[in-house]
Structures are given as C-alpha cells and as structure tokens.
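re: that chain from earlier
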Amino acid sequence: MKKIVFLFTIQLLLCLTDTFCQSFNQEKVALTNFIIRMYKTEPFTGVKVFLDYENKYLISLVKLSPKNYNSESDMNRVAEVKAKSLVNQFINGSYITSESIITTTETTSRKNSAAVEDVIETITESSMGYVNALEHISTFTDEKEPDKKVFIYLRELEKIKKKKK
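^ sequence. v structure.
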C-alpha cells in the first residue's frame, strides 16, 4: 500500500511539473502568434519596432527560398546572418554609394538611324556594427508565396515602466 501511495505521489508531482513547464513561456508564444497574424494581414520584411503592454521589441523578418540552399542548416544560418544585418543597418545606419554608367551606341543604315542607350546602375551599401541577443522565434511558409519561408527574429529592447496613479 505504501508503494502505491508513493508511486501515486511521484506521478502527481511529475504531472504538475510537466504542466508548469508547458506554460512557461506563454508570453512569447502569444507574441509569436501576433507577429505571424500581423505578417499575414500585411506581409513585410525587414525590421520593425513595436510595443506591447510591458515591453518594447525589435523584430526582423527575413524571407528565403529553400530551393536556393543545399540544406536546412545552411538556410537557417543565412536567415540569421541576414536578420542580424538588417538589425545592424537599422540600429547603426549604413553608408551608401551609387554610380550610374550610361553608354550610347548609334547604328546607322541607309534608311534610318537608331541610338541605343544602356544604363548600368551600381548601388553599394556598407554597415559596421555588432548585434547580440537576436532570438529566432518562428519559421513559417508564406501563404502568398508557398515556395518561400519567413523567419522571425526578436530582440527585447527595454521594459516599459508603467505610470503609477
């Protein structure tokens, strides 16, 4: 009888612990679901800052095509680097150079002459900085472009202090 009571007590404790662990991060799950709904309503990529009741967050969304990568881990690594790059450009700014090259070629014949103009534009963007604490919170397939995956990265910027009445 003592063994049965002991086993029942252990099983009860395990069940309570398991239930607690599953509900450990409900805020992050709710936040992830909110970001996914926000994306599905109006798709976007890049960096956004938004507020909830208690926190200020910076999110970075990256959209990639899985067929361009040999493995899932390669695609995940590229998504992480792109997300960090976008956050770095957002926080630290970037240096942009632009160059336009216009070449004109003229062809003439007895009946008519025509000028063909080629425009080559080169834009280079550079940014330097360090981004830490960027957390991958979700990946899902884009509904409008089923061949693309959307990666969501999150960084908590600060806690918002509530005003006391």
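The helical segments are 2-22, 26-41, 72-92.
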